[in-house]
Amino acid sequence: MVLKEGEIARFDFTAVDGNGRIFDTTLEKKAIEGGIFNEKRKYKPAIAIVGEKDFFEKIEEAIKNAEPSKKISLELEPKDAFGERNAEFLKMVPLKEFRDQKLMPFPGMPVEINNMQGRVQTVSGGRVRVDFNHPLAGKTVKYEIEVKEIIKEKNERIKAFIEKYLPFLDEKDSKWSAKEGTIEIMVPEKFSSGIGQFKKAFSDMAMKYLEGIHTVRFIEEFSKKAKIEEAVKKHNEGAAAAPAKAAEKTPAKAAEKGGKKKK
User: pTM of this prediction?
Assistant: First the structure.
């Protein structure tokens, strides 16, 4: 089987570093086993659109030529994965910049400077050396991949595009229709701002790869019910937090914060 450009596949994967440690996976069980489970993440198959290069080139090539339900093992050299280490990504930052933000850097501390993610390597002589290389730069990594399904039916393809490019919309939020070459998507009030880039990405990809689609329309939905539900939610959260705040004011908590009681 060879997938053509624009075809969509759902696939599971587990990635390990050179020491056999899992650093990424779509499988909850594997995440728990590897000690990287994140309760805020939804563990489910990833979506690949052939030709979009959303994943490493060799992974996309493997998916493109895979047989569904047959596992594939890949070993990627640094040049095919996270790249070689680059000395230019090692930067010296004045310690004062951290202290101005009331931070005390230490080796291994993750930092973000000028929208770049890095880790502190050393702190010495009023200067902090930060490594902005990817943690897996220069490393050979391994991926185990299993294509779960090839999505062919038009409505299922639309759902896959919504899932991939509008990830904040879950099933209950995802109200849409498609007719006469137009996709209309209802956007709840809680998502009405700050999603311009998501809407553009969805629109571009939908019109590029979904046959017959020439228009995408987003309809923002505002309702009194939504405002009431949000108010109730905030009230309940406040009520739940009240006992904890009250506990902080007890003599025992006060003693913990202020030091031991005088005898």
Answer: 0.75
